[in-house]
Amino acid sequence: MEFTDKVSKRLNQLLEKNYDAEKGYKDAAERVENPKMKDFLSEQAQKRYDFGHQLKSEIKNYGKSPDKGGSVKGAAHRAWMDLKAAVSSDKHENIMEEVQRGEQSAINEYDEVIAEDLPPTTKDILVKQREEIKQAQQSAKNFEVIS
């Protein structure tokens, strides 16, 4: 497999993960009543939308086409469907636990891709996104303690 094919394939996997996270956050934000939680979830959905655009641009830089987000991979999708179920239980603690679980899954996938042989510009983008995901995960932990 050609280097650019390999890198763009991995970036498309992260792109799909971000599509799932964005949708999970949006669904959760629409369902919660707590204004602070709604704001947090909406903000994270927007960040994942922004991450998706960064990844799309990077994929295009390799001369490849970004996935449109139509197909859903099992593990990534399940993590965010668990968030949807937690929202229906209406327990803030459960919601933030699911956010943490979904973000840990994303962090793990980012770590795998970052460990690969990537151009520095691509690696920089992914490291920055991973750090923001870690911050979201920590915010969810902090939110859980406060509520």
Question: Summarize this, please?
Answer:
The protein has helices at 3-31, 35-61, 74-89, 92-114, 120-146. The chain has 147 residues and is mainly α. The model has no long low-confidence stretch (mean pLDDT 85).
Top keywords for this entry?
single chain, 147 residues, mainly alpha, 5 helices, 83% helix, elongated
As residue ranges, the low-confidence spans are none
Q: Proportion of β residues? A: under 5%
> How many DSSP helices?
5
Main beta sheet strand tally, sense and closure: none
Mean pLDDT: 85
Q: Mind telling me the C-alpha Rg?
A: 15 Å
* Terminal residue distance: 49 Å
Principal-axis shape: elongated
Helix content: over 70%
How would you characterize this protein structure?
- The chain is mostly helical and 147 residues long.
- It contains five helices and no strands.
- The longest helix has 29 residues.
- The chain is elongated and about 50 Å long.
- The model has no long low-confidence stretch (mean pLDDT 85).
Please outline the helices and strands.
Blueprint: H1 3-31, H2 35-61, H3 74-89, H4 92-114, H5 120-146
